[in-house]
Design brief:
about 30% helix, about 20% strand, 5-stranded antiparallel sheet, single chain, about 550 residues
Length: about 550
């Protein structure tokens, strides 16, 4: 079937034919969710190369307490993933879903939407299919003769094959009236995570992987006359899923595939499995994770573990626990897994990681002020940690002032290493005390941007200008009056304010390193070298 002329379409459908714009651009995003991505990367030893991101993702909020999320893992180009991510919302958010619909009706609508979208995708490549058929009809047999006589025509056919062979998996989560439904084709995963009464994180995979390791899929393929060994040969090394949207070469053109042509009908299908409805009202401290296969497979490869759902869920839970907003949580998780994979395989030549796409949807998990850390206590302040802090001998320079404060105890016979007071690392439960944004933080008795204390309970582990001196000894009595709280000294506290960008479109740093004065550091280092040289000369 030829594609309709865009001029003949109604105005409401014309935007769907455009590749540079979509009606979904104006849909409101769900503020209870976050998206994280990591483009595919090929490692090359000391260097790595990132390629075009082929996946697509959305997290929409609609009227009538309706939310729609989707992860689309494209392969052989982004055309199918892009098309599906635009058309599926159109099939679900334009009045098809009635708030009064029961579970069976919602499931039928989801199945129908997947079918309509795939049919629409194949219609969108009708022109390429017609051109390919026309060119093939003009070539003589056999194929090697055609390539010699008409190389340009063969090249055109190959280009058309590249245009029509792309496909995508599709994982969609629908929340309507606080009831969750999940529809899936392919090997992306949906994880429902929540804490039980004993504060143990329980992780449940809601869907089954449609791949060659799923026994139900193996049985389905066998019923079509295929041998599973043959099917694995056709899929392994490229992709392993057994259901997807698009990919004409192994669907409408499967009879041209030597490994699939024995099937009695199309072996790769786009019929989704639909799960739900799951009531979300009773879930406390929970969240939903939607992830492409590269997320869990990258973690599998890096960790050497097969079952990694719980590991990934704990990474998400930990990120939620230490965040005061949902925004940025999914991206942080994607970055951590990408970094883990890169650290494991980054130095290997010709290794790679596929596109990673992740959605985290909060379900009554503490976010915001309830997730902020506990207030600082005397016990925390008593803990000392060795750290290399720049200083001038017998003095301390404080940020924001050109004044140098001398030390009165430089004549001490035995030196005590300087330490930086750090918060104690308590195991943080998944729900923490609520701290109001107007709460008064405990004020420190130490100066602005510097928190130094003498200690004999710890010993430095490295030879740095801080621990090589034998003269500097600081005490609290020698330091100036307080100028700000301990938290604000090293960290800019985020009190739910909007982060503003500077002239370079960057966010202000969370950590204040101003106290680490380079000039002071270099002066101390120079004096240490001169001291060492003097000692060596006197010894000689």
């Amino acid at each position: 079937m030829a594609s309709p002329d865009p001029a003949e379409l109604s105005p409401n459908r014309r935007p769907l034919q455009r590749s540079d714009a979509s009606w979904t651009d104006d849909l409101p995003l769900c503020d209870q969710s976050d998206v994280g991505i990591a483009p595919n990367t090929t490692y090359g030893g000391m260097m790595s190369e990132t390629y075009v991101y082929e996946n697509r993702v959305f997290n929409f909020a609609s009227d009538n307490n309706l939310f729609l999320y989707g992860v689309f893992d494209g392969h052989d180009g982004s055309r199918a993933a892009h098309f599906t991510s635009e058309r599926l919302p159109a099939e679900l958010l334009l009045g098809q879903l009635n708030p009064g619909a029961d579970d069976e009706m919602v499931k039928n609508i989801l199945v129908q939407a997947f079918s309509v979208v795939e049919r629409g995708f194949f219609e969108s490549i009708d022109v390429e299919l017609a051109k390919k058929t026309h060119l093939q009809s003009q070539l003589p047999e056999p194929a090697d003769l055609a390539e010699k006589l008409y190389p340009s025509v063969v090249q055109q056919i190959e280009a058309l094959n590249d245009a029509i062979k792309g496909g995508t998996t599709a994982l969609v989560a629908l929340i309507m009236n606080d009831v969750l439904y999940v529809a899936n084709v392919g090997d992306s995963r949906a994880l429902l995570c929540q804490y039980d009464s004993k504060d143990h994180l329980k992780v449940k995979q809601l869907n089954h992987d449609h791949d060659i390791y799923n026994q139900n899929e193996v049985d389905r393929l066998k019923s079509l006359g295929l041998k599973i060994e043959t099917m694995k040969s056709a899929l392994t090394g490229k992709f392993e899923f057994t259901r997807c949207i698009g990919d004409y070469a192994i669907k409408g053109g499967y009879r041209d595939n030597d490994l699939l042509k024995e099937a009695t009908s199309e072996p790769i299908i786009a019929t989704p499995d639909v799960y739900g409805g799951i009531l979300l009202n009773d879930i406390k401290d929970g969240f939903l994770v939607l992830m492409s296969d590269a997320v869990y497979k990258s973690y599998q490869q890096a960790s050497g573990k097969r079952d990694v759902n719980e590991d990934i869920a704990h990474i998400v839970a930990n990120q939620l626990r230490h965040s005061n907003r949902i925004r940025g949580v999914a991206q942080s998780v994607a970055d951590k897994i990408a970094f883990y994979h890169s650290e494991t395989f980054g130095k290997q030549h010709r290794s790679n990681r596929e596109d990673m796409t992740l959605i985290v949807r909060n379900i009554n998990h503490p976010i915001g002020s309830s997730a902020l850390p506990s207030l600082i206590t005397d016990e925390i302040l008593s803990r000392q940690h060795p750290v290399s802090v720049p200083y001038e001998e017998n003095s301390v320079r404080f940020t924001g002032s050109d004044e140098i404060y001398p030390s009165n105890n430089s004549s001490s016979g035995s030196s005590k290493p300087l330490s930086l007071v750090m918060p104690q690392q308590h195991p943080t439960p998944h729900h923490t005390p609520v701290i109001s944004s107007t709460s008064s933080y405990p004020t420190s008795t130490l100066p602005h941007s510097t928190y130094i204390h003498s200690s004999t309970s710890t010993s430095p582990s490295e030879d740095t200008p801080t621990n090589l001196t034998n003269k500097t000894h600081l005490s609290i009595e020698q330091l100036p009056p307080p100028m700000q709280s301990f938290d604000e000294m090293y960290f800019r506290i985020d009190r739910q304010g909007t982060l503003e960008l500077d002239d370079d479109n960057r966010v202000a740093p969370y950590v204040n390193f101003a106290c680490f004065d380079k000039d002071v550091w270099m002066t101390a280092e120079k004096r240490h070298v001169e001291t060492e040289s003097s000692v060596t000369s006197n010894g000689a």
